[in-house]
Each structure stands twice: as structure tokens, then as C-alpha cells.
Amino acid sequence: MQQTAIQEITAADTLDALQLVKTKYVGKSGLVTKELGTLGKLPPEERKTRGAEINVIRAAIQAALDEKEATLKRAALDAKLQSEAIDVTLPGLGLPSGGLHPISRVYDDLIAIFTRMGYEVAEGPEVEEEHYNFEALNIPWYHPARELQDTFWLEDGRLLRTHTSNMQIRYMVEHDPDLKMVSRGKVYRYEATDATHEAMFHQLEGLVVGDGISMADLKGTIAEMARGLYGAGAKVRFQPSYYPFVEPGADFAIYWNNPRGESKWLELGGCGMVHPNVFKAVDDLREQAGKPRLYEGKTGFAFGLGPERIAMLKYGIPDIRYFYANDPRVMGQFRGELG
Ligand code: DAH
């Protein structure tokens, strides 16, 4: 029995196969174990010698099993290390490269245009106080304009800003005139989404304050932005419009040729001359903060626009929801080059 057991152990070439041999001989109902069980029926003097014999056999089988198990385990580990070894002579696989989101690209273009014109770049909070998003911008609680900007309210009475115009107020409270600033960021509206509406989107806000700033400066600035975006031939159009924080107010559009050879007016945003009530609200806030009232009597213009509109036309993206769905089939088209 010892001989056949040793042969079988030698032949076992996997740990599973070895386990079967182990069970067969030294398991609970294995052949050796059974043999030991028969000892009780033997007369005492025989029992002793026979028992010693069987134990020698069992020890030999067990030793062979242990040794084989160690060998097989070492071989398995070697194979694993081998398979994980790095062959430094193989050619590299390369890593997929990321890319700038189309909205970031449009923002970068816009910011470059305005910093060239001497504007500072400011950033501000998305969770905002009602006062900065509405009241200080001449939008009291009863104003119908609030219905145009359905609002996400927080339980503590604050809100998700509905536009970047809050930054007009924050910037003027922090900085003395004269100033030129642009501010980019996310804005939120509580409304149903469709191909041209998202509950979260982006804006670029601009504000210029000084002495004797006029509507002509505003028009010249928007025209300069249009030329920066679409080249020397770009045309701009202004139409009277109403926003509580400007007077007069206007909407502006840019006429341009998109990469697919279409020419169209692109309604881009709103603008106007800063309303005196806004300057007053700013001075009130400044006074509360122990700062001098420097804004009443100043003149200025402001504008706000949506980079999504520019990006949709520039890149031929038909649905605003594609920007934020993180679908690699869409975003994968914006890998690599940074322009
Ligand atoms: N805040 C306005 C909106 O979200 C856009 C706007 C209009 C901004 C006129 C301005 C402005 O600064 O002068 O609809």
C-alpha cells in the first residue's frame, strides 16, 4: 500500500489531484485510517507491533504528501510570478488621453479675449443668498422677472444662483471703482430639460464701471468679443430688451459662419447700462461692511451670455444635454488637441 501510495503521490501533478490521493489514504475513511481501525479486533500482543507498522507507513505517506504539496505550491507561485513579469522590451500600449470639455474651450477663448482688453477674472459662489441673486439686482420678491428664473431653494433660505449676475454685486462690494471684470460659472434653473434647456448650465458675466461709460462702449465691447470669436467679419445686432438690473437693456446676437458653411444670427445674451438701483444696493452693502460709498453716480455696463450656445453651434452639438451626460461617444470627440 505504501508503494502504490507513493507512486500516486509522485504522479499527482496538481494540488487538486494530490488532495484526492490524500483523502484516499489518510482521510477520515482513507485506507490507512481504516487499517488502524481494525487494530481493536486483534489480540493485545499483535496489536502493538501491527499498530507500530501501520504508523510507520502512515508517517511515510504523510511525509511524501507534504513534500509534494510544497513542490506543487512553489511551482504555482513561480508560474504566477512568471505571468506577471514585465517584459521591458515590449512596445508600450499608450494611455488614452483626455481633453478639454467643449464648454471649457469656449470659456478659454472668451477669457482670453477679455483679459486682452484688460478685464480681471472673478469667481463666486453657486450657493448664494437671495439678496445677491435678486434684491440687490433690482429684482424684489414681487417682481415678475423672478418667474422667468425658476429657482432651486435650499432649506436654509439660500438658493442656487440663477445667473452669474450675483457676481456684479459681490465684485463691486469687494473692489473700488473703476473696474472691468468677467466672471464665469455654473448657474441653475428649476425647469424641465429639453434639447436647449438644462437645469444646470453656464454663463459669462461682464461688468465695467467708470465715469462716462456709455452704450457705445458696450456695443464696441460686444463687437470686439464677436471679432475675437469669429474673425474680423463678424457682425453684432442689438435689440431692446428688459432686465431689471440694467436700463436701457438689450439682447445681442452675433452673425457668423459656422464650420458647416451656415450663416446665422446667434442669440447670445443680454446686456445694458447698470441700473442706478444696483449701484445704490452695492453702496448699502459696502456701508454695512464699513466701506465708503463709491458707486452712486458712477456709470457702467453689464452683459451676460451662455457658452453652451456658442459651443453647440461651433461644434455642431444638437442637444445641450450631451454636455453633461458624460457619454464617451460625445466627449471622446474632444480628446487631444487643446483648441
Ligand atoms: N442675468 C441675465 C440672465 O440670466 C443675463 C443678463 C442680462 C446679464 C443683462 C447681464 C445683463 O449682465 O446686463 O438671463
From TrEMBL:
Main location as per UniProt: cytoplasm
Keywords of the record: Aminoacyl-tRNA synthetase, ATP-binding, Cytoplasm, Ligase, Magnesium, Metal-binding, Nucleotide-binding, Protein biosynthesis
Natural source organism: Deinococcus lacus
Enzyme class: ligase
Coiled coil: none
Calcium keyword on record: no
Family: Belongs to the class-II aminoacyl-tRNA synthetase family. Phe-tRNA synthetase alpha subunit type 1 subfamily.
Pfam families noted in UniProt: Phe_tRNA-synt_N (PF02912), tRNA-synt_2d (PF01409)
Subcellular location: Cytoplasm
Protein name: Phenylalanine--tRNA ligase alpha subunit
Subunit structure: Tetramer of two alpha and two beta subunits.
Residues given in the record as Mg(2+) binding sites: E247
PANTHER family (UniProt xref): PHENYLALANINE--TRNA LIGASE, MITOCHONDRIAL, PHENYLALANYL-TRNA SYNTHETASE
EC number: 6.1.1.20
MF-aspect GO terms: phenylalanine-tRNA ligase activity
